[in-house]
What we know:
By secondary structure, this protein is mainly beta. About 5% of the residues lie in helices and about 40% in strands. Strands 1, 7, 8, 10, 11, 12, 13, 14, 18 and 24 form a 10-stranded antiparallel β-sheet that branches.
Amino acid sequence: MSEHRLTSTSNPVGITQGYMPGFGNDFETEALPGALPEGMNSPQKCNYGLYGEQLSGTAFTANPPERTWCYRIRPSVKHSARYQKIAVPYWKSAPCIDPDVLSLGQYRWDPVPHSEEPLTWISGMRTMTSAGDVNSQTGMASHIYLVTQSMVDDYFFSADSELLVVPQEGRLRFATELGVIDLEPKEIAILPRGLVYRVEVLQGPARGFVCENYGQKFELPGRGPIGANCMANPRDFKAPIAAFEDRDAPSSVTIKWCGQFHHTEIGHSPLDVVAWHGNYAPFKYDLRSYCPVGSILFDHPDPSIFTVLTAPSGQPGTANIDFVLFRERWLVMEGTFRPPWYHKNIMSELMGNIYGQYDAKPQGFVPGGMSLHNMMLPHGPDRDAFERASNANLGPEKLEETMSFMFETRFPQHLTAFAAKEAPLQDDYIECWADLEKKFDGTPGKK
């Protein structure tokens, strides 16, 4: 078997990578032949002088437990020295409630513009909303990332959360302890809590969205009466094959822990896992693989049928977070108002546009933009969308060139000061409903 080695961005030639299919599978992969022990996890001596180490994503007694055994050049304690707190001013964690910011309202933003400042994955993160409490490991935060500069001999991991990454522009490489993930628009990545990685720019500038999940990790939703097929299929998720760096060089590791950032200096790369096996791993997924389902006769079903991933809460049927996708699809419902209907929802809905137009808001909700409709605040189509859908000559219609998503949570989402004061907020968004007309006519049988 050929060696699977990572290299720094200054010498990208020779990066070997690949993927293994399946969501939550128990994978095994080795970058050197015989690096994985046979028949046991913790032999007295590992081949190649490696150290065996377990990375746990759940309590040991969880059913099923989520863990990965790593066989690495140095144990992780060698990747950790004395820590110093550092300031990362734009990356916030819940609870983050600014008394000078009004979170109650319907909000929409234009794309956050790129700046001339060189920004890495850490310095380029811009928190828009937060919900719940990072210390009690409930809730989430939503972010925009703006990345123009690769991390070189700098590494990061979050002890607080797993990250769901949704690119909108540019291409990134996540060089992780467990292998390499390359990511571009129309794909997503899931980076588990505790996983160390470096982020490199393959094509920039890069911009996208991040859902930071403090609670139980994302899983595939139960399909219920939909059955075994459609929606997101496990085989379309890809985990990386093992790859490693054996490089001595002054390096730094930044850790996000309980909403604070800490920095430590080490003398080598921490991406030194030569082989691993387990079910706790990063994944990528191509959103074009998502197979939507819907009504084929009448009425408009709930958006829950478009759930790609869900992070459960302790309350059955109510998610900590749902990741919902609105992509190209056919509309064929008879006698039905086809766009999303007007509603108030116990869940808070943060939407982002990856490309194209969203059918309920054809104007103003542009690629790279976001909107927030907080819990129990009414929202729905603007006047033009309502009139068009109410008077359309209904026939089979395909929504094309469209891909938007929603981070939906059971918690109220609080705006950060950046979202309220620095991001390009559309002050007139609420006016999109201002010219909705009173159409009431009490005449019996009148429509």
